[in-house]
Hints:
Elements: H1 3-20, H2 25-47, H3 51-74, H4 79-86, H5 92-104, H6 107-151
Helix pairs in contact: 1-2, 1-4, 2-3, 2-4, 3-4, 3-6, 5-6
Amino acid sequence: MGTIGQLVLAYIAVLGFGLIINIPHQALNVAGWIGTLTWGGYLIVQAFDGGVVLGSLIGSVGIGVLSSLAARYKKMPAIIFNIPSLVSFVPGSQAYQMVRNFALGNYREAVSFTLQVIMITGAIALGFLLAELLNRLIAFCIRQWRLRRLES
Length: 152
């Protein structure tokens, strides 16, 4: 599937999941764009052979930063944008292959997929942590800039 098709499907997936978990309708389009932009970042990392783990890390940092900006803009909690946007990054196929190989007795393959699932979910968690640190750093810099501007 082409890049445009993947981006369109990422937008549709975020909208669909947002409807399933019943986020406010005012937030659906913004969440869809956050999911699309971050999936685009993931695809760029994939194009440069960055791997699934690095792509998930970059994508989750993007989700965290963009969700924080959208939360301020829309005056809604950031989690409303985080959860639906994250749906594209969940390692579902690796988890399926892990369980399938355990059931079939292919333990080497199962352990390989288990490690992939652990690394991807760890990268997603680390990405959200880095995004939170980045958001706080940006807020601190803006506060300092405003204080300096008021003093002069």
